[in-house]
Design a protein that fits this description.
The protein is of the alpha+beta class and 434 residues long. The longest helix is centred in the middle third of the chain and has 67 residues. It has 2 domains: 77 residues, no CATH class; 281 residues, Outer membrane efflux proteins (OEP) (Up-down Bundle). About 4% of the residues have low confidence. The strands form 2 sheets. It has a 4-stranded antiparallel β-sheet with strand order 2-3-5-6, with helices on one face. A two-stranded parallel ribbon has the order 1-4. It has 9 helices and 6 strands.
Length: 434
Amino acid sequence: MKQKHFPITLCWLGVAAAISLPDSPAAPPPAAKSPRSNTSEAAAGGTLSLDRAIRLALAHNPQLQASAARKDAAAGRALQSRAWPNPQLEVSSDDMPIHHGGLSKAKNMAGINQVVPYPGKKKADGAIGAADAAEGTAAWHLNRADLVREVKIAYCQVQTAERSAAVAADLVRVADAAAAAATKRNVAGEIALQEQLRAEIQLEQTKADKVDATREAASARQELVRLLGRPDLGGAQLTGAPDESGKLALLNVAPSSILAGHPAMVAARARRDQAVAALRRAGLEPRPDVTVGVAAGRDEAANENLMALRLSIPLPLFDRNKGKQLEAQAAVREADAGILATQQELLASWRIAVARYKAAAEQAAAHRERTLPKSEQALRLVQTGFEEGKFNFIDYLDIQRTTAEARLAYQKKLFELNSARAELEAMAQPVPAN
C-alpha cells in the first residue's frame, strides 16, 4: 500500500514545498525618514564644526545612501552567482486509458530532475560576482571620498562668502560715513559738489556689492546643507577657520604609492578581474551541463513498481560560443586599457592639485605677509591725511576700496588653498583592505 501511494506522496511533498515559499518577494526596507528638525541646531542658533558636518553628510546624504544600496546590490549578485539551479519535481502518468480506469490503470511516476553545471562554471560565476562586488565597494568608497571633499569645499565656501559679506558690510559703513561727511562739507563750502556725488555713488556701489555678497553666502549655505542632507542646519554657526598654514605632509609622499589604493584604481582592477573571469566563463559555456533525473512509480495495470533514470546532455554542435569568447577577449583588452587610463588620469589630477595647492599657498602667504599689512598701513596714512585736509575724498574712497579688495582677494586665496587641500586629501583615501 505504501508503494502504491509513493508517487502521490512525493507529489504532495513537492506541492507543499512550493506553497511554503513566500507569496511575494521580500518586502523592501522602509524608506528613509526625513531628518527631524532640531531646534537647537536650526536657524535660531547652534554651531557646526567641519568634523561634525562630515559625519552628518556620511549619515544623511541621499546620494551616498544610493551608492551604498548599489554596493549591497552587487554583494547580493555575488552571493546569487554561486547558487546552483533548483531541482525540479516531475510527476507524470503514462498509458492512461481514455474510456475507463484513469490513473488506476496508468503508469504513474514521480521524480526529481537536477541540472549539474559543468565543473568550473560556477567557480567562474562566483569570480565574476566577487569582482562585481569589489567594483561596487570601490565605487562606494569613491563616492564617499568625493562627498567628504565636497563638504570640506562647501564648508570653506560658506566661511569665505560670509567673511566677504562682512568685508562688504564694513565697506558700506565706511562709505555711508564718508557720504554723510561729504554732504556736510559741501554744505559748508569746503568741497565741490562732484566730490559729494562721488561719495554718494561709492555708497550705492558698496550697497550693491553687499547685496551680492549676502546672496552668495546664502547660496553657499544652501549647497552645504544639501550635501549634509540636513536642511534644518541652514542657520547653524560654523566654527573653526580655514587652514592658512600652506603646509601639507602629503606633498612629501610619492604619488604612485598614494594612488595605488585609490578607489578608481581598485574599481579598474576589479573590472579587469571581472573581464578575465567572464572570458574563462565564455570558454566553458560550450561544455554541456548534465541534467540528471530519478523517478519512481507504479504500473497500476500490471501491478508492478517502476524506476526510471534520465540523463540529458546538450550537444554543442552548432553554437560553440565563439562570438562571446571574442567579446570577452575584447573586454579584457578594454579593462587593461582602462587601468592604464585611470592611472594616467589620477597622476595628472594629482599633479594639477599639487601645483594648485602650492600656488595658492604662496599667494596666500604673499597677501598675508605683504599685501594686507601694506594696504592697512596705506589706509591709516590716507585716513589721517584726509582728516588733516591733505587728501581729498577721491583718494580716501579709493584707498578704502583697495584695502577691501585686498582683504577679499586674501579670502579667495584661502578658499583656493583649502579646496586644493581637500582635493589632495580625497585622492589619498585608499580603499581599506578586506
